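Usage example:
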Amino acid sequence: MYSFTYAKPASVNDAATEFSASEDASYLAGGMTLIPTLKQRLAQPSQLVDLGAIADMKGISVAGGTLTIGAMTSHADVAASADVRKAVPALAALAGEIGDPQVRNRGTLGGSIANNDPSADYPAALVALGATVHTDKRAIKAEDFFIGLFETALEPGELIVKVSFPVAKRAGYAKFPNPASRYAVVGVFVAETAEGVRVAVTGAGPGVFRAGDLEEALSKSFSTDAVKGIKASADGLNGDMHATPEYRAHLIGVMAKRAVQAALA
Amino acid sequence: MVKVSLTVNGSAHSAEVEPRTLLVDFLRAHLSLTGTHVGCDTSQCGACTVHLDGKPVKSCTMLAVQADGHQVTTIEGVATGKDLHPMQAAFRECHGLQCGFCTPGMVMSALGIVTRHKDGLDEATVRHELEGNLCRCTGYHGIVNAVLLGAKNMGVPIKDSKAA
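Running the assembly step on the lines above writes:
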């Protein structure tokens, strides 16, 4: 690791101040991506602003049909939360399959979505559930938040404070995990929401995207039969040592079916 | 340099460290607690697993300063004097180790599994929740048996298993 200075502010305001005080600062959430990146010398921030002591960024609450999760809430806490399991069980299940137990104890919702890894699980949930990302400056709809490969709508220094999820009528998530990293080779999140059926796919392309044909089919009939004949196109999908674009396209159909099964269970 | 103050295995420690010092390096080099191992150094193998406020974490993927003000437990803090912890004893009993390099991390992860599943544990859950720990000797079978026996001896009901 290159050397850096370190600050551990106790409030969102102080974090923003610490960030702007250094020319090339970086926020540190759970560190499950950032610390390995620093160890490989792939990043060289002048200062790390550790968000671990900001109480306002942690916690889970449900009120008026909206589930709200603080950005610094760990995956383990989301997975184990009675509130999340009751309001959006698919989200608790998703959080419980990220990485491994040690990673889930450190990794956070805010860190995951700010990084926007194309294979991360949470982006699919946010887009399918029609979530809103609340930063220290504004509220951003999930679909406007995830821009592309490791890119989000966040401005430099802008800090995610919490994410709010409208409680869906039913939802399900299924992923084909990479056996080493447990990142999604392909993950599909289906949700029957007040705005209709929404389907979001992660892992398959350069970033999370909605699958219109699956949404249309599931709107007519929310069943595994409805998605049976739908073939996703391999155009523009990722190809690497783990899976070709054609295989990922096939997996979209398989994971969509399993996600619907999970939603109906 | 920044000051870091934390409790390790029940004892308070303070030191001046560079912010980039990893927790595992702090434990091994500053406190001479070399039971916590560095295997892959890429947060995959779990040999560096310690408990932070009672929860298993990978100490190679955490800065020492992030543990400031927190409680850390390493493998050295598990036994009571010369008496092995029931989980350590189960690893010996079930041949849950061969070369022993991954064992400290396995034991710390196993204790996390017991904490999360006090009401009951089965073999499938143990295998699933050991995903963050790699062993290159045993083929895992002895380890899984050890976790189940250790859990049983800690008072956890074991479901659907021949092992314990």
